[in-house]
Amino acid sequence: MDQIDIVPVLVRWIHIVAAVVAIGGATFMAFAFVPSLRETLDENHREKLTAAVRGRWGKIVHLCIAVLLLTGAGNFVLLALKAGLKPMPYHALFGLKFIAAMVIFFLASALVGRSPGFAGMRQRPAGPLKAIVGLGVLIILLSGVMSSVRHSPSSKKATTTDTPTATLTIPQP
Ligand code: HEM
Questions:
Q1: Is the C-beta atom of 25 inside 6 A of ligand 1?
Q2: pLDDT value at position 3?
Q3: Residues with Cβ < 8 Å from 7, sequence gap 6 or more?
Q4: If you measure from the C-alpha of residue 7 to the centroid of ligand 1, how many angstroms do you get, rounded to a whole number?
Q5: Of 53, 73, 77, 152, whose Cβ has the fewest other Cβ atoms within 10 Å?
Q6: Residue of 143, 151, 152 best suited for mutating to test ligand 1, as the one with most atoms within 8 Å of CB
Q7: Cα separation, 112 vs 103, whole angstroms
C-alpha cells in the first residue's frame, strides 16, 4: 500500500469536524431552538435564555470560523497548489465556495455579536439562520465536487517528466 501523508489528512479531518459543528449547530438553532423559544417562553425569559445561549455558542462560532479559514487555506495549498492542479474548473469552484463561506461567516458573526447595527437581525434570527443552513449545504455539495474534480485524471497539469502524447514526424525528402 502507498504511504499516506498524515498532514493533509489531519488538516482535512479538522476542517470537516469544524464544518459539521458549525452547520449542524445552525440547523438546530433554525429548526428547533428558535421556533421552540417562541412557542414556550414570554419575552423576558426568551431574552435571558437567548443571551445565555449566545454567550456560549458565540465562542464556538468564532472558533469554527477561525479553524475553517486556517484549515481551508491549508487544504487549498496542500491539495490544489502543491499538487499542481489545473486551475479550471477547480479554482472557479473554490472561488464560489469561498464567497458563500464569507456570507455565512458574516451572518453568523452578526447573529452572535453585540453590534447595535445588527440588533434587528438578532431579533428575527430565523431568516439568517436558514440562509446559513442553505449556503452550508451548497458549500458541502461544492466541496464534494471539488474533491471529485481533484481525483479525475484530467485535472493534473502536464509536467516535464510526463510522457509526450504527440510525436513530430519529419517528412522525408
Ligand atoms: C462554512 C464553511 C465551510 C464548510 C461547511 C466547508 C466544508 C467542507 C467539507 C465538508 C469538505 C470535504 C469535502 C469532501 O471531501 O467531500 C471541505 C473541503 C475543502 N474546503 Fe471547506 N468548508 C468551509 C469553508 C472553507 C473555507 C473558508 C475554505 C478556504 C479558505 C475551504 C477550503 C476547502 C478546500 C480547499 C477543501 C478540499 C476540497 C477537495 O477535496 O479538493 N473551506 N470543506
A1: no
A2: 80
A3: 78
A4: 16
A5: 152
A6: 143
A7: 15
